[in-house]
């Protein structure tokens, strides 16, 4: 009776039928793998509830797709690729989030092929590395506080060429003028510099000297953003 209910409409005698027990074992293993990955990602990382739920459930989804195509990886990947059509509705993810989704899909694919032990071993190894890298703060930029973006507002009659170089050379080990923008109906210029401070404790001293050159107009110093170059 159960084999009849769960039999596909287009199955033939040459088609291998997945038993209910094997199906439940694979699904349970996939859900356990998803939870392990979710907890590993949550360790010392910024995350959202929706992303953690996705990581926890994605291995089971991929597992079912692979099982339903009877282990045909080519067909399974093609079917799973249809889910990427909803990608345009989501916000861009970080490299870390995208990698985690690939890991979850990989674990689900291995489980769907029936290699449960390999799937668990793969998950344990990768999650251990994720936790280790988070613990070591692997890949963090050293002296990140010294990398700054400086915005200086000057009047339109001030020639900005070389006017701030003397001050910047004193307080910054390197600097670069990356953008010049007119503002306030063209009556003001806004200069944007990327610079590396020699000593972050002298930031206020540098700003005070710059204020004497730009007529005490607005000056902002912020952390140098690297999100634009991030995957």
Structure, explained:
The protein is an alpha+beta fold and 231 residues long. The protein folds into two domains: 17-136, no CATH class; 144-225, Alpha-Beta Plaits, CATH 3.30.70.60. It is built from eight helices and four strands. Strands 2-3-1-4 form a four-stranded antiparallel sheet. The chain is elongated and about 85 Å long.
Give short descriptive properties of this protein:
alpha+beta; 4-stranded antiparallel beta sheet; 2 domains
Low confidence ranges: 227-231
The oligomerization state is single chain
- Alpha-carbon distance between the termini? 51 Å
Number of domains: 2
Q: What is the H-and-E element order?
A: HHHHHHEHEEHE
Which overall shape is indicated by the principal axes computed on the Cα atoms? elongated
- Got a strand count? 4
Rg (C-alpha, Å): 28 Å
Largest sheet: 4 strands, antiparallel
In short:
The chain is of the alpha+beta class. It has helices spanning 2-5, 20-42, 49-68, 73-81, 95-112, 116-136, 165-171, 203-213, and strands spanning 147-155, 172-183, 188-197, 219-223. It folds into 2 domains: 17-136, no CATH class; 144-225, Ribosomal protein S6/Translation elongation factor EF1B (Alpha-Beta Plaits, 2-Layer Sandwich).
Q: What layout of secondary structure does this protein have?
A:
Blueprint: H1 2-5, H2 20-42, H3 49-68, H4 73-81, H5 95-112, H6 116-136, E1 147-155, H7 165-171, E2 172-183, E3 188-197, H8 203-213, E4 219-223
Antiparallel strand pairs: 1-3, 1-4, 2-3
Helix pairs in contact: 2-3, 2-5, 2-6, 3-4, 3-5, 5-6
């Amino acid at each position: 009776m159960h084999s009849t209910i769960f039999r596909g409409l287009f199955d033939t005698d040459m088609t291998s039928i997945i038993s209910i027990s094997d199906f439940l074992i694979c699904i349970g293993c996939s859900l356990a793998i998803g939870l392990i990955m979710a907890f590993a990602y949550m360790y010392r990382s910024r995350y959202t509830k929706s992303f953690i739920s996705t990581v926890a459930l994605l291995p089971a989804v991929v597992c079912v797709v692979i099982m339903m195509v009877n282990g045909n990886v080519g067909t399974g990947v093609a079917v799973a690729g249809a889910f990427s059509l909803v990608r345009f509705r989501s916000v861009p993810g970080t490299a870390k989030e995208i990698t985690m989704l690939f890991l979850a899909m990989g674990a689900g694919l291995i489980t769907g092929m029936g290699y449960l032990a390999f799937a668990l071993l793969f998950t344990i190894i990768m999650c251990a590395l994720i936790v280790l890298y988070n613990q070591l703060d692997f890949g963090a930029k050293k002296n990140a506080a010294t990398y700054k973006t400086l915005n200086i507002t000057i009047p339109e009659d001030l020639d900005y060429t070389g006017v701030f170089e003397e001050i910047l050379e004193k307080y910054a080990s390197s600097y670069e003028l990356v953008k010049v923008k007119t503002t306030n109906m063209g009556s003001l210029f806004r200069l944007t510099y990327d610079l590396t401070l020699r000593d972050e404790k002298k930031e206020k001293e540098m700003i005070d000297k710059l204020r004497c050159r730009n007529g005490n107009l607005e000056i902002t110093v912020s952390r140098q953003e690297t999100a634009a170059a991030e995957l």
